[in-house]
Design a protein that fits this description.
The chain has 767 residues and is mainly α. It has helices spanning 8-26, 37-46, 60-72, 76-103, 105-117, 119-124, 131-145, 155-168, 172-186, 191-220, 230-238, 251-258, 267-280, 299-316, 318-333, 342-350, 358-371, 376-395, 400-403, 407-424, 428-439, 445-472, 481-490, 495-498, 510-517, 525-535, 538-551, 565-575, 579-592, 597-610, 618-627, 629-642, 646-659, 664-676, 680-693, 701-714, 718-730, 734-741, 747-764.
Length: 767
């Protein structure tokens, strides 16, 4: 007797329950949610503490969902995680139902198992971002739209899903338009039967676009203001220092954002602030909508400005842009897991299952794409969906988050390859996939540097956490010196952002301690060289930098820091008085990395002292064109100070400080430049404001200590002397601070002085 076959719905329910169980079980291995942008933003909006135009910086659907849940419960994170686990379980069930119509039950079950265990899906089930909802909506949309011979099964329901997809991420709009084009093409000889489902389908997306336009008009003053800032995102993937495999902020945006903890995703704010400061100062011209110098730029105009900067670089360097496009195309299919969210990377490390490697999935899918051409009419929808997301990655940038939307389609085409190989007993699809796997697996320099950084940061993190706990328990700062050096020896690129205040610097320099603890390896050559250079060991630094050039290995620090050995070698040449050699090195570096902000700024600084160039020179114009005028002044000012040209640096840094008074590093650099030109009062004013903005990191510590020391010598007012002693302590000169305090004090100040003396003696005592 033949057993009764289970209905499709029973299989689907089983797939959903198994997927939910697997995701729930694996979530036990993951740490708590580390990325809470939307939950924090929801709270700020509900409390009225977020500017209205910031509504456009977030996914509308996900933000409003977080706000709705915030009104119901304090534990929004847990509710969102449970919701995402449920939606991804439903995604697996929907994949089975959809694939079963095309491939049969066995292949559909295999595909459902693959999508359930896929690393991308598992990781982003725990990330509080719209990706899980977007993937569910895409799968539901595909299930309802992909009927027999490409006909819609439920056009009105599909339209509602499309509207929700558009409200989740704007990239859903091209998918809806592609569906409409396909329906019209299929019924091109009889348009009347096509019109009714098309109207049903379009109703909800059209209404959603109208609602988003009204929302943009209300919060930003323009109905054309885009959601989620496509212009700045395009810039992040196509600016000179981006390789197209991650979002890369320009240096000034990174500096302004790094000290901002209270505002979620603050880069959007600073992109606008930089653009508006330039237009407000009459630097830039007309960017549309009638906004001229002095008038506040709208969100749309800011996006256009940053888009234009990316396009200007592309037009100036088409060869480099083409190579970057090739890199994007490769990494759309590559096995690399270069997450643009640190939390996703931590979840990736914690995941105990490997799943099907993405390289294997890609390699199997590509022959399936060729095989499926035979059913062209029935699969044009799939090609369009795959192509639209590929276009998104090529236009913006490639990352595992961007590729998540590909997963169902790649699994389907991989199943096509396996099915045809088994049924038709043909080997060429499998052989082609076998050839493609190595090409999609081999790492490059950028990936090796990223893996090196991530691994080293994980070694440094627990040491820094232990130090924080010990400081909180009241242990003397002197006991932490070796721990700081050990932590920063694991991740020396953190030095600029983590230089601790109050650490005694009167003995061995922190840089030398870090350099001596660095593990020698090929991957750390540049970091070793930079630390020895900071420590003053010029010859050792030069040898290591030359070794970097010989190996040819490239670093990729996403525009945050200089990564060019040529730049550091040029500075060493300047120390020896060889300006011409320094210029040759910098120009050679620019040929290899056109548009690099740090190399351009260094060369502008060098030319401004050798050829009376600077502002208005072609190189400064390039720096301004690619990064903005404010960024150019900031970068050139820092470069001039590094080249010990403080008088020339002042002009640039004053412009930066005037435009961005909250930028602490610019104030400290300006204070150092003032001091080196014997303008002590001006230097002291800047450093006092900078230290009120934030206490750490202790940048330009030697200059700051000299400023406070000179202030203590010149002043007789007790409060000013006490403040100078505190500054000396803050920048690592406790012995000198004690000598400053060794004088008679009025009774009103004696208690404060005694407390500071106790702290100073604690700081210099041996642990």
């Amino acid at each position: 007797m033949t057993p009764t076959r289970l209905p499709r719905s029973a299989y689907a329910w089983a797939v959903g329950f198994v997927s939910l169980a697997v995701h729930g079980l694996l979530s036990l291995w993951f740490p708590a949610p580390l990325f809470e942008k939307y939950t924090v933003a929801a709270e700020l909006f509900l409390d009225g503490r977020m500017a209205s135009e910031r509504w456009l910086d977030f996914s509308p659907l996900y933000l409003h969902l977080a706000m709705f849940l915030r009104r119901l419960t304090e534990d929004v994170e847990s509710v969102l995680l449970i919701l995402q686990l449920g939606l991804l379980a439903a995604t697996s069930a929907l994949f089975f139902l959809w694939a079963e119509r095309r491939l049969g039950i066995r292949w559909a079950l295999l595909g459902a198992a693959v999508i359930t265990l896929d690393r991308h899906v598992l990781i982003y089930s725990r990330i509080l971002e719209p990706e899980a909802i977007f993937l569910f909506l895409l799968m539901l949309f595909l299930y309802w739209v992909d009927g027999p011979e490409g006909e819609p099964t439920r056009p009105f329901a599909a339209g509602i899903v499309g509207a929700l997809g558009i409200a989740t991420r704007p990239t859903f709009l091209p998918i809806c338009l592609w569906v409409l084009v396909l329906w019209g093409w299929h019924r091109r000889e009889q348009l009347r039967p096509w019109a009714r489902p098309a109207v049903y389908f379009l109703a909800a997306p059209a209404l959603m676009l109208m609602l988003l336009a009204v929302r943009a008009q209300v919060v930003a003053g323009s109905w054309r203001a885009p959601t989620m800032n496509p212009g700045t995102v395009l810039y992040e993937g196509n600016q000179p220092m981006s390789r197209g495999t991650s979002a890369v902020y320009p240096p000034l945006v990174h500096q302004l954002s790094s000290g901002q903890d209270s505002t979620p995703d603050p880069a959007h704010v600073y992109y606008r602030e930089i653009a508006r400061r330039e237009v407000g100062s009459g630097v830039s011209g007309d960017f549309g909508d009638g906004d001229r110098g002095g008038r506040l730029l709208g969100v749309r105009d800011v996006n256009r400005l940053w888009t234009r900067r990316a396009l200007d670089f592309t037009l100036d360097h088409p060869g480099f842009a083409l190579r970057r496009l090739q890199t994007k195309l490769l990494y759309a299919f590559h096995n690399f897991r270069w997450h643009d969210l640190p939390a996703a990377w931590l979840y990736d490390r914690a995941l105990p299952l490997s799943g099907v490697p993405f390289a294997l999935l890609s390699a199997l899918a590509l022959p399936g794409l060729l095989l499926e051409i035979r059913g062209r009419r029935n699969s044009l929808l799939l090609y369009g969906l795959l192509g639209s997301q590929l276009l998104v990655m090529l236009v913006f940038y490639v990352s595992p988050r961007q590729r998540l939307m590909w997963i169902p389609l790649l699994i389907y085409f991989s199943l096509v390859t396996l099915r045809d190989t088994v049924r038709q007993r043909t080997l060429w699809p499998a052989l082609l996939a076998l050839v493609l796997v190595p090409a999609f697996t081999l790492p490059d320099d950028a990936m090796r540097d990223e893996i090196y950084q991530r691994n080293q940061m994980e070694l440094a993190r627990p040491i820094l956490q232990e130090i924080s706990g010990r400081i909180a328990d009241g242990e003397p700062i002197s006991a932490m010196a070796d721990g700081f050096a050990q932590a920063l020896a694991h991740a020396p690129w953190w030095l600029e952002g983590l230089q601790p205040a109050f650490l005694d610097r009167s003995g061995q320099s922190l840089e030398r301690a870090i350099a001596s603890k660095l593990d020698p390896s090929r991957l750390s050559l540049f970091d070793q060289a930079e630390m020895w250079m900071r420590a003053g060991d010029v010859e050792r630094a030069r040898a290591l930098l030359l070794q970097c050039l010989e190996t040819g290995e490239q670093l990729y620090r996403k525009g945050r820091l200089n990564t060019s050995p040529e730049l550091l070698l040029a500075r060493l040449d300047l120390l020896d008085g060889r300006r011409q050699d320094a210029e040759v090195r910098l120009r050679r570096g620019l040929r290899a990395h056109p548009g690099d902000a740090f190399l351009l700024a260094e060369l502008v600084a060098l030319e401004s002292t050798t050829h009376a160039a600077g502002v208005g020179s072609p190189l400064f114009d390039s720096l301004e064109t690619y990064y903005g005028r404010q960024s150019a002044h900031f970068l050139v000012g820092r470069a001039l100070l590094a080249q010990d040209e403080p008088a020339a640096a002042i002009r640039h840094l004053e412009i930066t400080v005037h435009a961005f008074p909250q930028l602490r590093e610019a104030r400290l650099a300006l204070a150092a430049a003032f001091f080196r030109t014997s303008r002590l009062d001006d230097a002291l004013k800047q450093v006092l404001v900078a230290d009120r903005i934030r206490a750490e990191p202790a940048l330009y510590a030697d200059d700051m200590a000299e400023i406070y020391g000179a202030a203590a010598q010149q002043s007789s007012a007790p409060d000013q002397v006490l403040r100078a002693a505190q500054g000396l302590f803050h920048y690592g000169r406790p012995h000198r601070a004690l000598r400053v305090l060794d004088r008679p004090w009025p009774p009103a100040e004696q208690k404060k002085v005694a407390a500071l003396q106790r702290r100073l003696r604690s700081a210099i005592s041996k642990p």
